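Let's sit down with a protein and look at its sequence and fold side by side. Once you have written the record down, we can walk along the chain together.
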Amino acid sequence: MKKLFILLSCVLTVNLANAQSFAILNDSDEVITGNTIIVPITVNNEVEFDIKVQNLTGSIISAKISKTFLEGPVSGSFDSMCSPATETSGGACVTSSTTPTFVLNPNEISGPAAMHFDQGSNSGVSTVRYKVYNTANESDFVYVIVTYSTQTSINTSIARDFSVYPNPARNNFTIEHNYGSKAVVEVFNVLGKSVARINSGSANQVNIDCSKWENGYYFCRLFNEGKIEKTIKLVVTH
């Protein structure tokens, strides 16, 4: 009986050690099943893949997201990722391999964490593993693998336009889209701070003065009826 108790205790300890504290969700708060997601992309274009992170435990957890290229990246491409906004911490976008720490309350579902990929002028495939892990225990993690591929067809019949030019911008730039009057464009710096918010109204073309902005990367994100549609990387250099 004593041996059986010890055996059960060991099994319970192993199960607890292997238990995952996180789930990765899509925009509809559905758990992403399967390890690999294919994201179509075209040459000289960029896409955004959003995930949410849920804390499955009854405790506060500090976490990070890391990225590892399993294939690629394609020569000339550019990528970045953003930590999610939570109840206690704001999101921040970085080009490094690990996001800043974000904090999740018990059972909290975060806001979207945006993974950006700019294909550049070359075709090809880039496969990235995005891993959400507990900063206090790096063996406690969950991941999703995303493949950005020019070899997967895109349905262009429903394509909609969103452009930012000139890019790089010096003193001003223009935002143009065909998403209609309910669309909103918000511009964030690399720290995730909003520096401009534009309600389209009746105009689908707006000029933005960036003459006083710091040099560097910015992300122009288009929201349509509250949903993130597209993000374009902008470079400001005076």
